[in-house]
Amino acid sequence: MKLRFCLSVLLLAANTAQADNQAAQTPSDKKGQWTFGVGVFGANLPHYYGAEQSQSLLLPFPYIRYQSEKLTIDRNGIKRKLWDSEHLELTFSGSGAIRVNSDDNRARAGMPNLGWVGAIGPALNWYVKDDKSLYMQLTARKAWAIDGGIESIGWQSELSVNWSSDKRPIANNHLWYTVLKARVKYDSADFNQYFYGVDDAYITATRAGFKADDGYAGAQLLGGLNFEGKGYRAGVFARYNHIGGATFEHSPLVKQKGNLSFGFAYAWLF
Description:
By secondary structure, this protein is mainly β.
């Protein structure tokens, strides 16, 4: 359980709590610079998109950052310039979903639990502006569910538009900035079936069978407010997800078209 706990918080910190600035500056030290720390992540999240129920969680996570002239490793993933272009970067990033006990979810009563879900894969960033404050990102991630074993559950992909403001000073050399993100998602049939499918064995008088297809999987808006200073990084975020028109919209496990989630992250730097 502790291993699954740590894996999930790393993925959540990389995706859900990504109210951060991806416009990194290149350090003068070509050998690279490491920064280490420890943090805490708290959020209220839906059991899954379209669920009626949500749950709150508070999780620790390690803060690790490396930056050199060509390579950056941080909570956004692994970023390396592609073809030495100032406007294109090839990255690796992760996402995740929390474990859901079906006894706590009315729509899933009597069905198998949903495990911790982790996904990782490449992402291509195209920076529209030279200062990297506005960029588009195309991602593809392989996903696994972890609950007493590891199960491959297909692929996720998304196209997003991301913007971050300039960093602005506040008292005592602290800085703050905002982040906005809009994205649309396309998931494989196996991934959608894991969350929204209903096999024959779990059909009831109030729950019909459902076989999920691949296709459009919803749209999302995220806003974040971030702070940084000597020895810390912090942020708060709010996210709205809408699955109207999604390929699994008519699953009996979908009880509402929109979900609002929010949370915070705070990291102490060594």
